Amino acid sequence: MVLAQARPQVRTYRAGGSMDRHEHGEASLSLVVHGGFLEHIGRQTRDYTRGHVAFFPAGTPHAQTFGSLGARQVTIRPEADWVDYLADCKAPLSEAPHANSAVFRRLGDRLLQELAHADDFSGVACHGLMLEVVAALGRANRPATAAPGRPPAWLRAAWAHIHENALRPITLAEIAQAAGRHEIHLAREFGRHYGMTVGACLRRLRTEHAARRLESSSAGLTDIALESGFSSHAHLCREFKAQLGVTPSQYRGARRRVGPC
Questions:
Q1: Predicted TM-score of the model (pTM)
Q2: Among 68, 149, 179, 193, which has the highest number of CB atoms less than 10 A from its own CB?
Q3: Of 3.40.50.1000, 3.40.50.10330, 3.90.79.10, 1.10.10.60, which CATH number belongs to 201-256?
Q4: Terminus-to-terminus CA distance in the chain, angstroms?
């Protein structure tokens, strides 16, 4: 199955609460997914609401006062090369850069959905979404770019690699290596051109393969699940229902009139 990736953490804060001035030993990214709060950092007081993302360098003192709805945020520990990417984007890292947009609201919702899945795909999906958060924060420091056209050759190579290897364990790092690009660049451009994350693409391809096998064979659901890249019968059923709106048994019965399992 897909190899495990570092997962973000979800933290919830009560309405009207506060956190005294404190600092962290490691850099972090926070993405507000519900409610809001006032962030007191240096001489600034920032008003964070849903869809607000901020980068905090290690050792940056800050305090929070939470609003009437409380707050929920996703906390990400950025890898060293992610921080290097933000620096290359000219993000003022020492000033704790921040941004708020519909892009971050969408990514926050997707991260919560993937964390709720907790299946063999959620690790790589979360990893890809975290990279998209980093890329979007870097982009917030640059002029807007034009709408995407035809995917470049390297991205088409990544697409082909995913399709050719979708039924076995595969990571974003492997795909990026096959494409000759950095993971952040791959995650950003993949979503921009294809409208989905790598994890979502893998789910779709494996579900489509399972659907074809259900139509063309009489193999048991567990066997079809395993050969399609799912970890179990239950995993297949959950993903199949989420994508196609019916269970594998219902799908097979409608096409081959085979009794329910």
A1: 0.59
A2: 179
A3: 1.10.10.60
A4: 25
